Amino acid sequence: MDRRFSMWADVSSVAISGIKEKDSTSLKNGFVPSATIEKLPDKVLLLIFTYLPHKEIGRLARVCKKWRMISSDSRLWTHVSLRPDISGLHVTNIETLLALISVRFGPSLRYIELPIELITHTVLQELAYKCTSLTHMLLDFSTAMQLHDFSDLQTFPSRLRTMCICLSEVIFMEGFMRKIYNFINGLEVLHLIGTYEKVTEEEEEIYEVINIHKLKSAVPNLRVVNLFGIIFVDDSHVEALSSNCIQLECLAINFCNKFTGSTLKLLLQRCKKLKSLLMQQTSLKSEHVMAAEWDKTVLQELDITATELSTECLIDLLTRIPALRYLCAGQQDGFTDQVMKNGSKRAMSKIW
């Protein structure tokens, strides 16, 4: 991302300096060009600006009053990331952000990413009041050592269809989550991103920083759940989700290494619409996988990378999934020629 922003910065700097050089040369020669960038219609300039990252739009807003006016058009701010490491944009003042939400984002805003320092009750309430088209939100708590006080949080964006929460290693989320449960029952896609990459072998205690057993009751309409790298997630959490989210079509629990598969049978029985099951780098046990009723599913996508299943289990699994279209099974010592040979033609021939 930094390289892309650097590229745009270089391009715009060269373009602006080139315009200035041409203007000065033309004036010296007594020639005034009939077609200049100033004569482009506003709608054309607006279209050009839509191809630029927000950091670059902010730079170009300082060129002239016209460009500043165009850069403030809410149609350029429908998808906004305020995470500086991702977009290069960083708002340090809450009052400034509140003004942006009211004046620049408004009803046009559909997607927003907020870092921990901007996740306050005033910001969330302003988004709920002013950004009525907001359907996608990312809240990044990953670097948090302490949460803001959410005791005064009275409302929250209620039209969200997709929400992503980046969890902290040590901050318990229940105080915040309790405040938003009543507003997120329309969610269809939920991403909970854990701290798998930050965990060291020396760490002893593992904190259950978000209560999935309570969360599942607030989100009955989920179709996609992604629990990535959450070190405390085990079979009980998957069982809890399957008990209340029967519309589930995709479940990803990659890098949740406490999951053994003991609740796979229940999951497949309850979630009849499940089409995608991604279990990379989990601790699946062959006996649990073989106990599941794969032949009664509509499963189309399966990821069992680095799960150390036995050859017998792999043969049993691949011959019992009738609709399988995609299989990812890397780093499997048990995936031998025998697995390929004994896999039914019906199952294996449909895999992309």
From TrEMBL:
It comes from the Eukaryota. Coiled coil: none annotated. Residues 34-80 form the F-box domain. GO terms for biological process: positive regulation of protein ubiquitination. SUPFAM superfamilies: F-box domain, RNI-like. InterPro entries: F-box-like_dom_sf, F-box_dom, LRR_dom_sf. This is F-box domain-containing protein. It comes from Caerostris darwini.
